[in-house]
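Researcher: Structure for this, please.
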Amino acid sequence: MSPAVLVFAVQAARAAAPAPDCTLVPGWSQQGPARTFEPETLFDYMDGNSEGYLAYGFLLMKGVTCVSSSGDQLVIDISELGDADHAWGLFVANRDIRTADERLGTAGQVLPRRATFAKDRYYVEAAASPDKDHRAALRAFASALEARIAGRATPPDAVAWFPTDGLVTGSIRMVPESVLGLRILKTGFIAQYPEGRAFVAPEGGAEAAAATLQKLSARFAGAAALPDLGDGAFTATDAYLGGLLVFRKGAKVAGVANVAASADATGLARRLAAALP
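Model: Predicted structure, token format:
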């Protein structure tokens, strides 16, 4: 495929990306022009919040403002992310932790003044005004938009990697960069347990994962080998991350961090290693 054809194909795919439509729900109409933002212009719309979207591989946003015959307003935006995992990750990063998720796309929430969900590589959000309960309208639009978006509606494979025994409900999330605050671990997933924070950072292959594990071991003074967890596995103590158990399985670097001095996370590390594909 020539460069010109490739550019045209990318532009055509973006043009075909789902866009919000005020007429999806009776009684609503569009107010003002539709909005489109790319990575270079997202700051103009979101100011300081744009960095959070860019971290998850933001590519494009299409938005519109809808008004009802009674004067209510909905601001609806659909963001295209790098892939389905990143769309789910952005949803989890922005959800209300006090409210349970519901089955809307991959995962979603409908609150009195806000609805959000992820499906495939898209993150959808709608904000309502004035200050009252808009859940009926928000759910109607969210359901209609969800039906328009084709593709994956299942969580990342990584969700199944974490053992369920002791897992804190709703704690699994994607970290798009610097897992555990360590730039060595570029991207991955974390989950909370009583013993500490379990993490998994996929690498490009087993060789790359082995090299990353070696760099991590060299970073922590006093790191000690853990032969029973596999080649290169080690334990260490860090001022910020507390106790650490780190190992490799295939192309994944994983382990447990923030282990309290009185806790033993070896069992959790072993369960995590056994659960990893």
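Researcher: Any notable elements?
Model: The chain is about 25% helix and 30% strand. Helices lie at 3-15, 42-46, 50-55, 84-94, 135-148, 206-219, 266-275.
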